[in-house]
Amino acid sequence: MHFDTKNSAEYYFFLYICRQMSTKDTHQKFIRMPILLHLSAAILLFILLTVITLWMLGIYTKHNQAVIVPDVKGLQLEDATTFFTNNGLRYQLVDSVYSKEVPPGAIVEVMPAVGSKVKDGRIISVTVNAKGVQRAEIPDVADLSYRQAYALLQAQGFTTIETKYIPGRYRDLAIKVEANGRELNPGELVPLSAMLVLSVSDGVPEEEVEATEQEPEQDSVIEEN
């Protein structure tokens, strides 16, 4: 097609028609490829959601702000407070136990364990060693066998137990428990460090013991006659 001049109206009308045809052809091409269009949109949406999720997860868990639980075992609770504060942690006392490994009032265990990675501001559960003397009840050992009575005392936590045989009809039958020369009643609270004496029957009735002790006296009387 020939135009006399580029400034003519026909020339500009021709360019307009060409542009419209080009835009229409491009639009039709996209319409003819719906699968490709939908797939591209799904990929872009997936990438966008993934980025947003990771960003929010990082904020929620404070992934980059993890701290290490300090080793405060053996420290008094007052001294350990500084370590917790400096590491951005809090603590709560949950229990007290009796332990010979640390001084009274010192920290025995923490949870989560020492060296664990936790979030900033995490509450650490603390168990301390009791300051008082640990006591336990004296069990009723009367008429139990020696082994049963001894094991029962050990199960209560007593570690220093002596055995004393006294006259009795049935051998190895537990009779009583003493401490400092005094008979202890069942249920009585006694320090676990106390020295206990478990009295056990020797199998010789008291009557026979008395009779045996009197026999030498009778023999001496006969000899004098």
Question: Secondary-structure map with pairings?
Answer:
Layout: H1 9-32, H2 34-61, E1 67-68, H3 77-86, E2 90-97, E3 107-111, E4 117-118, E5 123-129, E6 135-137, H4 146-155, E7 161-166, E8 174-179, E9 182-183, E10 189-191, E11 196-201, H5 206-224
Description of the structure:
- This protein has helices at residues 9-32, 34-61, 77-86, 146-155, 206-224, and strands at 67-68, 90-97, 107-111, 117-118, 123-129, 135-137, 161-166, 174-179, 182-183, 189-191, 196-201.
- The radius of gyration is 46 Å and the shape is elongated.
- With 225 residues, it is an alpha+beta fold.
- The longest helix has 28 residues, at 34-61.
- The chain has a four-stranded mixed sheet with strand order 7-11-8-9, covered by helices on one side. Strands 2-5-3 form a three-stranded mixed sheet, with helices on one face. A two-stranded antiparallel ribbon has the order 1-4.
Q: Please bin the fraction of helical residues.
A: 40-55%
Radius of gyration: 46 Å
Taken as a percent bin, the fraction of beta residues is: 15-25%
Question: Separation of termini?
Answer: 172 Å
- Residue stretches low in confidence (pLDDT < 50, at least 5 long) are none
Strand order of the largest sheet: 7-11-8-9
Feature tags:
about 220 residues, alpha+beta, 4-stranded mixed sheet, 3-stranded mixed sheet, 11 strands, about 20% strand, elongated
Task: State the gist of this model.
The chain is of the alpha+beta class. It is 40% helix and 22% strand.
